[in-house]
Amino acid sequence: MNSVWATTQPAVYVAMKHIFPRGPDQRRLLRASAIKPPHGTFSRMPSTRGPWPGCAAEVAQRIMEAVFGAMAQPLPDRLFGAPAGTSGNLALGGHDPEAERDYIMYFFSGGGYGAGLTGTA
C-alpha cells in the first residue's frame, strides 16, 4: 500500500489534532508540521499512476500511527497506546434481480485506541 499527498497531509493533520485537540487551526497546524516526505516514498507516491487501494482509510491510519510514534517520546503525557491495528474496509455492490435495482454496501470496522499514562487517552 502507498499513499498520495492528498491522503498523507490530512492524515498528519488528523494525528496532530488528536495530540493537540485545542491547538491551532488547520492552516497554522499544517504550516508548523512541516510535512516533507520525498517523492516516490510510501507517503508521497505520484498521483498520476491511478488510484491507490486502501489509501483513504488503511494507509491514512498507518501514517497517523507513525506520527503518534514520533511524538510519543517528546510528549508521553499526550500520547496513548496503539490503535486497533487494521481498519477493515469492505465494499460490495451488485444488482438485485428481485427488487430490480442496483445496490452498494460499505462497511468500515474501526477500533479504539489504547490508554495513556494516566489510564485514559
Structure characterization notes:
This protein has one domain. 31% of the residues lie in helices and 13% in strands. It has three helices and two strands, in the order αααββ. The chain has helices at residues 5-19, 26-33, 58-72; strands at 89-96, 101-108. Strands 1-2 form a two-stranded antiparallel ribbon.
Characterize the biggest β-sheet: 2 strands, antiparallel
* SSE topology string: HHHEE
Distance between the termini: 28 Å
The helical percent reads 25-40%
Structural category is alpha+beta
Rounded to an integer in angstroms, the radius of gyration calculated over CA atoms is: 18 Å
Q: Helical element count?
A: 3
Strand order of the largest sheet: 1-2
- Our estimate of the beta-strand percent is 5-15%
> Ranges with pLDDT <50 over ≥5 residues?
none
How many structurally independent domains? 1
Number of DSSP strand runs: 2
The overall pLDDT average reads 77
Principal-axes shape call: globular
Concise summary:
The protein has 121 residues and is of the alpha+beta class. The protein has three helices and two strands.
Features:
121 residues, 3 helices, single chain, two-stranded antiparallel ribbon, alpha+beta
